[in-house]
Design a protein that fits this description.
3 domains, five-stranded mixed beta sheet, Structural Genomics Hypothetical 15.5 Kd Protein In mrcA-pckA Intergenic Region, Chain A, Rossmann fold, alpha/beta, Tyrosyl-Transfer RNA Synthetase, RNA-binding
Length: 427
Amino acid sequence: MTILEDLHWRGLLNDCTAEEALVERLAEGPISLYSGFDPTADSLHVGNLVPLIALRRFQNYGHKPIALAGGATGSIGDPSGKKSERQLLTKEVLDHNIESVKTQLASILDFNEAIENTARLVDNATWMAPISFLDFLRDVGKHFTVNSMVAKESVRARMEDRDVGISYTEFSYMLLQGYDFYHLYQSENCELQIGGSDQWGNITIGTELTRKKAGATVYGLTLPLITNADGTKFGKSESGAIWLDPARTSVYRFYQYFINVDDRDVIRYLKYFTFLDQDEIAVLEKQHEENPGARVAHRALAREMTQLIHGEEATDDAIKASQILFGGGLEDISENALREVANEIPNATVSSDTLSGEGLSLLDALVESGLSPSRGQAKKDIQGGGVNVNNKRIQDLQSKLTSPDVHFDKYILLRRGKKNYAALIVE
RNA sequence: GGUAGGAUACUCAAGUGGCCAACGAGGGGAGACUGUAAAUCUCCUGGGGCAACCCUACACAGGUUCGAAUCCUGUUCCUACCA
């Protein structure tokens, strides 16, 4: 199977500037390709993952991936898919973002310099910054008519909306990105750019510029926009975007996001995001269809993704934490796993004194921990059988929490309903 | 500006002197069933109390009454019709 066949089977081929020619070129040998990532935040999120993983797919097939951090383009702002003009980022924020994003890019691609096709990381500010405005206008701007630029979807959408409009700055974005491609062709012999389907316009500017200035054919390839079957936006949970940075989205939440993927989406996402091959996914698909309740495919997806981004060890912790929060008792739980859980859920601190003697009334503990808004509600929760202490149901209103309830001298796990947890941390 | 009608809990909406912390629906919470799903079914849905009961609440401020969401007066806001 070739890389393009692989992408095609995965449903990752959205559009290509010249597919047949690219097939021939790829057959001749390894190619350098790139994809750009603008540092609009100090972390990538799962929505950025498709192109990034696609770069890795190419690398796995022996090609040479280049990850481009958009130090220059990011300072302008890509109008593609944006309904309104964006706030420019300050230099400091931009620098910080680039540094953070760089390390994330590095975690997915193989930067091992010992291998032939090691990945590279470049920042377009290094070649954009020195170019003078005049030179840019003469060398790049001259090759494009405003007529064609205005016709691009990203610009047209904004022109049609008279209320928002588009600034000259964002209008120029496509030229910068186009120049990147030309530059990478010249300096790295980079012949292919990949990106999301919203990047089509920007990518074709690059292939055009390279053809006009260097007389060379370079290729563009776009990947589909990921859409959830239920119409919600991929990569967004109730609590916001799913980031790759564990400080923003904990490993546990990251794992859970993929566990909770809609049944209808799970096989598609296995193809989009994982490196599992056709046979492996076919097996998962069969198991999923026969018994969706077992959620084998979901588990595989969540584990693969979490391992890819956060590594083996953190994944194991997330899986264990999930087991505690969605299943069994605490009997065989390790202190590490319990700490993981406690970090994940709201918590309240109680002093060990309150647990000695009489103990702390469960009602007070529920209110204290924020699980129940009032004592009255706490009572109803208990009477309704909705309250668990250390994953054991308690239905006695008079129940007190005492030291034997404390795990590892530190934790008491409270739960209201199916998934509202809180930890009492004893000090 | 005139006339008429209205303002009830998260939302809609019943209630026109005591049986009203207030019918019903939606929403929300809990339980059962399940797959950390969907659907379905049951219960709960102002605060405190084990409870009797107490407090707070039917736009706002007063009043009548043993007793007011309900009657009266004034105020504010909304809606319709007329100017």
